[in-house]
Amino acid sequence: MTARTSPEAAREIPEATVARLPVYLRALTSLTEAGTATCSSEELAAAAGVNSAKLRKDLSYLGSYGTRGVGYDVEYLRYQIAREIGVTQDWPVVIVGIGNLGHALANYSGFRSRGFRVVALLDADASRHGELVAGVAVRPFDDLAAIVRDNDVAIGVIATPAPAAQDVADRMVEAGISSILNFAPGVLSVPEGVDVRKVDLSIELQILAYHEQRKAQQARPDGSVDEVPVPLVEQGLVDQGRVS
Amino acid sequence: MTARTSPEAAREIPEATVARLPVYLRALTSLTEAGTATCSSEELAAAAGVNSAKLRKDLSYLGSYGTRGVGYDVEYLRYQIAREIGVTQDWPVVIVGIGNLGHALANYSGFRSRGFRVVALLDADASRHGELVAGVAVRPFDDLAAIVRDNDVAIGVIATPAPAAQDVADRMVEAGISSILNFAPGVLSVPEGVDVRKVDLSIELQILAYHEQRKAQQARPDGSVDEVPVPLVEQGLVDQGRVS
DNA sequence: AGGAGTTTGTGAACGCGAGAACAAAATCTG
DNA sequence: CAGATTTTGTTCTCGCGTTCACAAACTCCT
Questions:
Q1: A197-214 per-position pLDDT tens digit
Q2: Nearest residue to D7 via alpha carbon and C1'
Q3: Which nucleotides of chain D are near protein (any atom < 7 Å from a CB)?
Q4: Is residue A121 helix, strand or coil?
Q5: How many domains does chain A have?
Q6: Domain of A171: which CATH number?
């Protein structure tokens, strides 16, 4: 692949766009599987669930990969996005905490198929060591540093209970990991230069609950609330019933 | 006052704020467990991992629950936020798709402790029916409508493989569910008035990979790119037409 | 009681992202 | 080959969310 990137083009892709690129990638994969060779921004936007103007603008940050009057070559665009995200290379990943969630993650096929390779599963519980999960043996947490060094691991996944998360994060950073995906609730503190993304299952449900509650209140606009003796009555109404 | 006055006084809480309220809730719970009775916006902001000005502005949408010169009563504020989100009541939830991820979700204690009660686990695979997961029996997917009706379920969780997701969503909506948390990849299409939130594990990793790649390139600003012979794990990603 | 010290709540400035609208570039048609 | 048609890439405008900065309000101390 043309290793000649323009001398520090330094294209700064907006964070909101970066978050959508994987969605486009997935949509393009669907189109490929459906046998589509070419698509317009309208089609792709529909498949990705976004506005076509937004899609075009997002893609414009990567370069001009479309043809006016024609559209995009599905295969070509897919490769360009994959390259931009970095999933044309193989990313070794370690997962720490092999409880229910860790199991699910280790078995999740979406990782491998998207360029992520689980090179190690770690758990502090010695009774789990040696157990095979998705073909990978569970090893002691203390092996972390050696594993990271030997496999050049940059990305770590934390799936431990909350109390252990900060300690695991510290050890990961110490071992040289610079990107962390955290499933444990709570806030992680990490040094400058380390990226953390958090996924909190119960937060998502709570956001849904909020909107659900509003809908229920709206359907009953007499101001009556379920119980809540507390003053400060608020009547929920108005609502742009779309959460994204 | 406030009883049946102008209803347009209803406070419209910004979406970004709604998404942070559960984080504050969690932070307040931590403070309570640590025995803290009162806290300043600085302390709470630190515990929640946000800027204190943002925290104060967020809270101001709920009302004036603090005391100037003093701070917030932890217990009181926690109740107010919980009430606003709606987690003072009990939300029945159904989970569809009891694979690895469904298992993990069913066992996730964070749901119950935050006002969500898993009333049913559904799976299309008959060989799983009757199996107990986290004390709840797995039942046929066709029981959905009856379960939703009998338990007044408003929230559904989809943890099936991607191809089944849209069908499950359709059936959920038909059964009367109006909020969906979707773990399956791909875009769900639902009617107006139904909220969908998506959690995509591989997308989070891809976002991390993008930033990780940037860090690597930045450390080596000569424009060189890693060798990348591109074995491309996924199906034919290969021959990208040509690079102009 | 009054002044000093805190800390909240909010008005205002600012920056980023979303969407509309349009010009540029390619194909198609006669 | 010229004009009509299609669709991209980009510019412009608007609204939302973040952050700053400060007045208001409360406590504490003398």
A1: 999 999 999 999 999 999
A2: A69
A3: 5-11, 16-21, 24-27
A4: strand
A5: 2
A6: 3.40.50.720
